[in-house]
Amino acid sequence: MIKKILLSGGVVLILAFAPKTEKIWQSELLKIGTSGKLEYIPDEKGNILPDFSRVGYHHGDRQIPDVPVVRSVSPQPKGNSDQVIQKAIDEVAKMPLNNNGFRGAILLKKGTYKISGSIKILSSGIVLRGEGDGENGTRLIASGSSQRPLIEVTGSGNLVEVPGTRVRVTDPYLAVGTKTLNVESASQYKVGDEVVLFRKGMANWINDIKMNAIVTRPGTLQWQPEDFDLHFERKITEIKGNTIVLDNPVMMQMEQKYGGASIYKASFEGRIREVGIENILCESAYTHDTDEEHSWTGILFNKIENGWVRNITAKHFVYAGVSLNEAAKNITVRDSKCLDAKSVITGARRYSFNNNGQQNLFMNLETTQGRHDFVTGARTLGPNVFYNGKSTKTHADIGPHHRWAVGTLYDNIVTDGEINVQDRGNWGSGHGWAGVTQVLWNCTVKRAAIQSPWVSGTNYSIGTIGEKHKGRFAERPDGFWENPNKKGLHPQSLYMTQYQDRQNR
């Protein structure tokens, strides 16, 4: 640091000072050992901070590719461009998949494209690529007054259980962070099987987290057991006798008194793969700042795995720049912005980057004028990660929004608003406990309320810079807080360190 001091006669004395450095500290839950490997410190029940590294496109094991162009489209001098773009997509959809699962990329040449409806990608292996997300790049403008997504990427079908494959997990307690479980019989399973780790919704569990006693107001719904059957998608990586190892860890405590757990083989016919959207400016045309009769979502993904959105700017949409529905899995959304939503500032609007799916990664993102900028919905099952995001001029809070999201990491998120993990009570139609195993790591906020539910797990605030506040209900159990307002947390990023640690093993 250089400091200039003005002396008599106009002489400037230049003094040099060593820059102030923050004292480095490590969490009591996770350390970098002398070998350079991560070491996890379990609690008295064996729970650890889970590994969040296996998220995003192919779990982060493959780089997003630059797929060769097979079609090019130019802006139409008059009228809308829906048909010419959709025609190119439909033509590429008829091409065979190559050995890497791609048909090819469609290049939208720079210029302005008016889109009166929705551009739809319904087949695997297609990349929609522009020539830049700035004003002089490729601009897709959702024209007209219909409430729809500008770009919709979706497959078909649903996740289904393979009949006769369900077996009970015999462990009396599955700790958060474990990938190993014991089953009654593993004889019908093999390494590589796609499975679901299943936890049934139980009435005694809802009673113990007091979600059958939400203070009512018009429209409040008490939680029902059948609404909380949780289906965590996983893959088997190892089998030894009746012991099964999964690719991703358990994300919430599973106890026999709350029904325990089971696994079953799963299939998802119709789910598409290897679709990307990149290098495009998406805009929604509007008539005034509270107009809602225009496009609500820039890019919508559902019923797809191993896809991506990158280098996208979304402007003026009512609901979201990018929204991943519950059947979107292993999607990477990165290096993108969602700016200046145009809508009434109220519920169910301005969810800038919204995730309802599993094993998804949102990184290097920026938002302005949102409400819930980096957000998950009901029963969003992790691991999921929001890493390196910046939110300004926000109108609400970041975090799990309602009804028990499980296993989300908020890593190096900076906001001029709040990040909250709490019992939201009768907000909405009975949001209740927003989530469990929600981890804030090295975040900077105006203020944060991090509380833990009465049973089934913990929420964490580690190295959060900003005011700690009491949340909606001050009497709820506090979460795990470690060194609030103390800079120097090492490692700086939990996600990046876990990812690098996995790659080096």
UniProtKB/TrEMBL annotation:
Gene3D superfamilies: Single-stranded right-handed beta-helix, Pectin lyase-like
Record organism: Arcticibacter pallidicorallinus
Superkingdom: Bacteria
Compositional bias per record (Polar residues), positions renumbered to this chain: 494-505
InterPro entries recorded: Pectin_lyas_fold, Pectin_lyase_fold/virulence
Name this protein carries in UniProt: Pectate lyase-like protein
Chain segments carrying region Disordered: 476-505
